[in-house]
């Protein structure tokens, strides 16, 4: 069976892609309006929403970047697992109930719709949509490039496709993503997330078992090897240190509640009360999937220290090398399918909210009304946005790898800095006003972009997103208190009191 390792891996990924296409065809029959395309008609059950929420959180980072981070910095990245789980709790307790009620009473189709309803401000709507669009471009280009590189590495290991180009791999992977997102919109996205989330959970559990069997003493022996070599890496804060880990606490914990591709899914469930079961399901699913990067990173670092393998050229090679040398071919196939699932579950979520920003939110903010035939244009823009992101990813890869990184600065940390004050705090504090929201969003964009453009390195491992989030929160609160209080609409006032 070892002789057919690559064929087994390719077959697993092929089956997964076929499933995605099948879901797209099925979802097309249920997508009758723009509301279906962007909000799934607010008709999803708690299990579906829970799987969609956590699978959208885990991108290719969880399967590639995560193990590399543990390999290079030690177990400090366990903090990401812990605080991200806390972030789910923050998001559901502070946002889920009210954002679902706003969606129902105002028939909202996007997060900027909610912002506009809360603040009665088209400027706030526009800036929220612009923030989402900028972040989406960075995220989407990065995810498409990641899919293509993984596909190229798998196909390039076979005789038939040894000379396949990166461009071809971008086309193939993007085509599958475009197909099910265009045909079924968010319905296809959510239900493929169910498949993707299930694969990630299974892959995470199986990899932990496989990683535990590399050493006779399991993960404990691997930890002892690392401890003897460098005790700091195996300590709770790893090599990043206490302050660095605390900055992660804010950025990845509280900041998770500000990720638009996650909190928009809180508007899609059938009933508000479903949130009580969505939270534990999301947290458990996320933790089970996240176990993968911790176990692989620890084992690979121990193998290098023990002299069983050569030091890695790049930390990001930790997971691919582990799969190629220490995992049964069938399990490797499942995990590679999980890798594609992780990347696509994030890509389709961002593609949907990016499309909504272009054809719904920005036109409403600028013209006072959405474009005509929203469903038709939603499908057209989905195609165009995917092609643009794919082209941008290729250009950045071959010409200027800083470009994606620059827009990536408007990713997680910018979403956290802009949306946590405006949405999370705004839906729980009636004194917050439109002026405070506008200033907070502008400041978050400026700070995050400035840190990235000028390559500013903060002391003590402090994450730049923490500075942006704290500044944005401070400005939102202070400007709101120093300016005239906005009078809430009667229906919004009732929501805020519940």
Describe the secondary-structure layout.
Elements: H1 5-28, H2 34-39, H3 46-57, H4 60-73, H5 78-106, H6 111-119, H7 122-156, H8 166-212, H9 218-229, H10 231-234, H11 241-253, H12 260-263, H13 275-305, H14 318-326, H15 329-367, H16 374-398, H17 402-408, H18 412-425, H19 434-453, H20 464-482, H21 490-497
Helix pairs in contact: 1-8, 1-15, 3-8, 3-13, 3-15, 4-13, 4-15, 5-11, 5-13, 5-21, 6-7, 7-8, 7-15, 7-16, 7-17, 7-18, 7-19, 8-13, 8-15, 8-16, 9-13, 15-16, 18-19, 18-20, 19-20
Description:
The protein is globular and about 65 Å long. The model has no long low-confidence stretch (mean pLDDT 84). By secondary structure, the protein is mainly α. The protein is built from 21 helices and no strands. It has a single domain (2-399), classed as Sodium/glucose cotransporter (Up-down Bundle). The chain has helices spanning 5-28, 34-39, 46-57, 60-73, 78-106, 111-119, 122-156, 166-212, 218-229, 231-234, 241-253, 260-263, 275-305, 318-326, 329-367, 374-398, 402-408, 412-425, 434-453, 464-482, 490-497.
Features:
498 residues, 21 helices
């Amino acid at each position: 069976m070892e002789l057919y390792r690559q064929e087994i891996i390719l077959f697993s990924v092929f089956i997964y892609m076929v499933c995605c296409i099948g879901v797209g065809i099925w979802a097309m029959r249920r997508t009758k309006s723009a509301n279906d395309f962007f909000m799934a008609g607010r008709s999803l059950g708690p299990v579906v929403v829970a799987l969609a929420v956590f699978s959208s959180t885990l991108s290719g980072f969880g399967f590639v970047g995560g193990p590399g981070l543990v390999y290079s910095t030690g177990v400090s990245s366990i903090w990401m697992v812990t605080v991200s789980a806390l972030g789910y709790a923050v998001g559901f307790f502070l946002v889920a109930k009210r954002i679902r009620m706003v969606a129902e009473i105002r028939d909202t189709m996007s997060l900027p719709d909610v912002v506009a309803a809360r603040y009665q401000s088209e400027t706030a709507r526009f800036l929220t949509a612009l923030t989402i669009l900028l972040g989406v471009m960075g995220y989407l280009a990065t995810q498409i490039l990641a899919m293509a590189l993984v596909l190229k590495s798998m196909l390039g290991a076979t005789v038939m496709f040894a000379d396949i180009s990166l461009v071809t791999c971008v086309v193939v992977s993007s085509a599958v993503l475009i197909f099910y997102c265009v045909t079924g919109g968010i319905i296809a996205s959510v239900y493929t997330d169910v498949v993707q989330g299930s694969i990630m959970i299974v892959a995470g559990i199986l990899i932990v078992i496989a990683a535990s069997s590399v050493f006779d003493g399991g993960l404990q022996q691997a930890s002892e090897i690392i401890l003897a070599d460098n005790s700091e890496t195996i300590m709770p804060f790893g090599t990043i240190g206490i302050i660095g880990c605390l900055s992660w606490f804010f950025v990845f914990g509280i900041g998770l509640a500000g990720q638009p591709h996650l909190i928009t899914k809180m508007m899609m469930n059938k009933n508000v009360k479903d949130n009580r079961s969505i939270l534990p399901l999301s947290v458990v699913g996320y933790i089970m999937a996240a176990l993968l990067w911790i176990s692989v990173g620890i084992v690979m670092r121990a193998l290098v220290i023990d002299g069983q393998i050569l030091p890695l050229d790049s930390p990001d090679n930790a997971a691919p090398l582990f799969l190629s040398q220490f995992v049964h071919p069938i399990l490797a196939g499942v995990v590679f399918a999980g890798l594609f699932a992780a990347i696509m579950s994030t890509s389709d979520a961002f593609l949907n909210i990016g499309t909504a920003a272009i054809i719904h939110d920005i036109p409403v903010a600028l013209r006072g009304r959405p474009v005509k035939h929203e469903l038709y244009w939603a499908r057209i823009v989905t195609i165009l946005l995917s092609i643009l992101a794919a082209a941008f990813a290729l250009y950045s890869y071959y010409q200027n790898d800083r470009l994606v990184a620059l827009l990536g600065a408007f990713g997680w940390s910018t979403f956290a800095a802009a949306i946590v004050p405006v949405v999370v705090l705004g839906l729980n504090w009636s004194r917050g006003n439109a002026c405070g929201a506008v200033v907070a969003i502008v400041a978050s964009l400026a700070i995050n972009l400035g840190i990235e453009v000028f390559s500013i390195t903060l002391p003590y491992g402090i994450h730049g997103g923490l500075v942006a989030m704290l500044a944005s929160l401070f400005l939102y609160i202070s400007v709101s208190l120093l300016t005239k209080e906005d009078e809430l609409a009667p229906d919004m006032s009732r929501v805020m009191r519940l």
